Amino acid sequence: MSKTRMVFYGALGSLVSVLLWSFIGGCHTSSDPDSAPVPEPQRFEPTAREEPAPPAPISEETLIEEGIITPEKPPIPPVDEPAGEDIAAEPTGGRIHTVEKGDTLWGISRLYGVSVGEIAEANNLADPGRLAVGQRLAIP
């Protein structure tokens, strides 16, 4: 260990000793009752707690205005036929496909071995990407 380090640790030890003894000496109480009176500990008595008032009811209008709930709307009636699309008459082959949930025109075309364009043309589909569940498609 170097001489500088030894001097440093020696000084640090002395400082800690002085502080420790000062603390212990400051905490010492004399046995003389007149030197420093010790106050009596305070007693805290529990006070009666008031129950909080229940919150005021919130109106449905307020909840709607704040965006917490949405107003109830009447259900949308089911659509029997897709709007704006003509269902073609049955072709001579007689193949009709009824669209089910999850069906796509591409999937239907692969199922029957025909192109998407042929099915769209045979059924006068303005938008081949919009099929409705229950829609009947003529397969050429």
Concise description?
The protein is mostly helical and about 140 residues long.
What does this structure look like?
The protein has 140 residues and is mainly alpha-helical. It has helices spanning 3-27, 60-65, 105-112, 116-122; strands at residues 96-98, 136-138. A two-stranded antiparallel ribbon has the order 1-2. It is elongated and about 115 Å long.
List keywords for this structure.
140 residues; mainly alpha; Membrane-bound Lytic Murein Transglycosylase D, Chain A; two-stranded antiparallel ribbon; 4 helices; 4% strand
CATH class bucket of the domain at 96-138: Alpha Beta
In N-to-C order, the SSE pattern is HHEHHE
The largest sheet is: 2 strands, antiparallel
Can you count the helices?
4
Please give the order of strands in the largest beta sheet. 1-2
Mean pLDDT: 75
Could you give the distance between the termini? 99 Å
